[in-house]
Amino acid sequence: MNNLRILLYVIALSLAACHPEGTNVNQGLDKAAQLIEQDPDTASFILENIRANQMNEAQLAEYNLLCTQFNEDKNIPHSSDEQIRQAVSYFVQNGDEYQQSKAYYYLACVESDLERKKEAEIHFKEAIKLAALTEKYDYMAKICRRCSLYYQKYGNFDEALEMERKAYASQLMLNDTSGNSRTILSSALGVFGVMSLLLGLLWRKNKNVYAQLNSFKDEMLRKDVESDKLALQCNYLEEKYQSLQQHIYESSPIVSKVRQLKERSVLSSKALSFSEKEWGELLRLQEGVYGLVSKLKEINPRLTEEDLRVCAFLREGIQPACFADIMKLTVETLTRRISRIKTEKLMLVSTKESLEDFVKSL
Asked: What domains can you pick out in the chain, each with its CATH number?
């Protein structure tokens, strides 16, 4: 039956040869494109009978794309990228989104066979991005499944699973647009549900799929265990870091100097002063332990350096009367400033909480 069909196509092509130059080439390419998926052997025979010297650039690009597609669909290993690169060069400049996507897709397939991992991954992603714009959901599902096989080849199971999810979603979209009420599998897309889908979809492609699936499950379990260990380690390190920060803060000379103000008499003749370096160190320490500066700036980015210094003293429980002279202000002026910081800059008008209590709560 196949031989008879091929004979009929040969007769049709012979008759087409009587038409103006190029017509028989276009007819042959169109017929091969129609048959490439349902009857690839006949399509291949038609392509073999098309003369290369009769083709223009566009026809040659279509011819090269179809030849590459035949080899890929028949699982014939690709040994060269010369043909597909000519097709890519032409369709990127002159083709629509679907043609560009197909060109990148088959280029990625060739590169995968040639062990060009990075280039293949880039072109698979480009093909998927363009395919998403075409609404050809059957084609989208096809290239996502092929990309999943590529990722599995190199042990990238997380990426392979993501490609299977995209293929599954495309298949559901195809069912919706075609009025097909059947579902492929359960609509639940939990991890193990998708793994079951991965098994069903890949069984036809690889006789060793069960071994791959078991390896995939082991990898997932191993990653879960590693993730739990890392989470525990992160928590432990976070606690140690906070403890270290607190120790550095408590043992800091500048913090000790600030706390001396609590015992200082308001009328003491011994005046304390703070250099710019000490002010900076105090704010840096309070930011490291409490995140004081960033939290206040998040509420109002217009807080001045002097406003932050006032809040830093209040965070340590120092009363205005004890540090007004350090700010070079009278107690009354400093008290009014604290009130403005609270009501006008931090907008704490409706609360009875003092500014000191507020900064300590941060």
From this structure: 2-205 (1.25.40.10), 252-361 (no CATH)
